Amino acid sequence: MSKKSPLVVANWKLNGGTDLIAASVASIRNQNFNARIGIAPPYVYISGLVNVLRNSSIMVGSQNISKFESGAFTGETSAQMLKEVGCDFCLIGHSERRQVFLENNQSCRTKVERALVAGVMPIVCIGENLQQYELGLTRDILYRQLHQTLDGLDLTGETLCIAYEPVWAIGTGKAASPEVVAEVHEFIYQELDAILGSAANEVNILYGGSVKKDNAAELLAINHVDGLLVGGASLDPEHFAQICAAANQVES
User: Fold this and answer.
1) 237, 17 in Cβ contact below 8 A?
2) Residues labelled catalytic
């Protein structure tokens, strides 16, 4: 099977500022990428990043969206608002949102629906923690996350991505082995095929979890690894640029 054009997304989490925006833009803006590149800064920097990237192909996204459309929900930001300020995509269900803010599959499903209606591409994050991994529950966890989030949704003509992030590999320096990544991404693809049919071929499946310039090319060479979700390494503009360059070498 031929590779999809890869997607590389920087998740800055609760980091960054105007200096990081300037340095990141300078490191990648004028490069010609075959891969799609996206940056998800904290909310307050989204508009500024959209403005400086307005004439480039680099996408800007949000790290989260509200499950509500509007109303008395202090601190929330809706999908419609994000679209209005220029967001191309949003992360949904990142492991830190699930663990720290107790998001679940049902809330993620609602957020996917909101994002699709607003025309913001959802990147649904799934993954198992260390205890679940050691108990051999990876497939069970991913099955529930995928099916409870996506079953029955009308995704005709819509763009969707999945990001597999083994929680035990996030920020630990331990990336999953290529063998584990290959096995899990194959499983994810098969489940997407069961849910979406032929439309599964249009879904980019990203890997996230201690992605670095040193392992990016190896990860991208794995079947059904259609891109990368980059955390800590994306805070170093030159490091992130090298990861993007690795994605640029993938032949679609």
Assistant:
1) no
2) 94, 165
